[in-house]
Specification:
hydrolase activity; alpha/beta; 14 strands; 243 residues; lyase; Glyoxalase_6; 2,3-Dihydroxybiphenyl 1,2-Dioxygenase, domain 1; 2 domains; Glyas_Bleomycin-R_OHBP_Dase; eight-stranded mixed sheet; 40% strand; hydrolase
Length: 243
């Protein structure tokens, strides 16, 4: 998929992910070996960041945290034709804007928001960069799951914001909701968990361990595939998915 095909992503469709890391070079080594990614610099607008690519198509961004107090996390971005307008709707629905919409040269406009429970997500208004160049294949984004303690509230909030993406498309959705259960620590806040597709889950878990990461939750079955939750060598959590 070409980078400028913004029409591929209707409002509310996951279109990009980035990792905020203490050490981008360590992240490049970890994810380069785990997923076969290569890396390039997108330009000054992205600051201390690199694009991850698979077969020369963009699949994610790795960025160095500007503030060490910020969490080491993967963040999912939902497409929107108007980040300012969507930001106003998020606030009206009980969420909040963490960072206001900010243009990144001609790449597009990004913002960070949180739902009423505090789960953080991004907004992306495409310019020259629409989002994933490859997805739904090994080494790329495959799914994002919202872990929440209030599924009814989450369904109402995201259903109002992204009704067409969640309920009105012919294609299968890329976004699910699940209750924070006893599998997870009691202190874990509501959050989005980015899933990357793999060919062999057991082999990938072995690679995570060998590269300095760890397995948080061993493989379990879901409606969308077999999943394991892991952290990278700097503590960022994500999931591996075998469909």
């Amino acid at each position: 998929m070409a980078e400028n095909r913004a029409s591929v992503y209707g409002e509310g469709v996951p279109c990009w992910v980035d990792a905020q890391l203490p050490d981008v070079e360590a992240g490049k080594r970890f994810y380069g070996e785990l997923f076969g990614w290569t890396f390039s610099e997108p330009g000054e607008a992205y600051g201390l960041a690199v694009w991850a690519r698979l077969d020369d198509e963009p699949v994610a961004t790795l960025a160095r945290k500007a503030d060490g107090r910020m969490p080491t996390v993967w963040t999912v971005y939902f497409a929107t034709p108007d980040a300012e307008a969507l930001g106003r709707r998020i606030i009206a629905a009980g969420g909040q804007l963490i960072t206001a919409p900010l243009p990144l040269d001609d790449f597009g406009v990004h913002a960070l928001a949180a739902d009423p429970e505090g789960a953080v997500f991004g907004l992306w208004q495409a310019g020259g960069h629409a989002g994933f160049g490859r997805w739904h294949e090994p080494g790329t984004f495959a799914w994002v799951e919202l872990y929440t303690r209030d599924t009814a509230g989450a369904n109402a909030f995201y259903g109002d914001l992204f009704h067409e993406a969640l309920f009105g498309r012919d294609a299968e959705p890329d976004f699910g909701r699940a209750v924070v259960s006893e599998v997870f620590p009691a202190e874990m806040p509501p959050h989005f968990l980015t899933h990357f597709q793999v060919m062999d889950l057991d082999d990938s878990l072995g690679a995570v361990r060998r590269l300095g990461g760890r397995v948080q939750v061993p493989p379990f079955e879901t409606s969308y595939g077999r999943v394991a939750v892991v952290t990278d060598n700097q503590g960022a959590s994500f999931a591996l998915l075998r469909r």
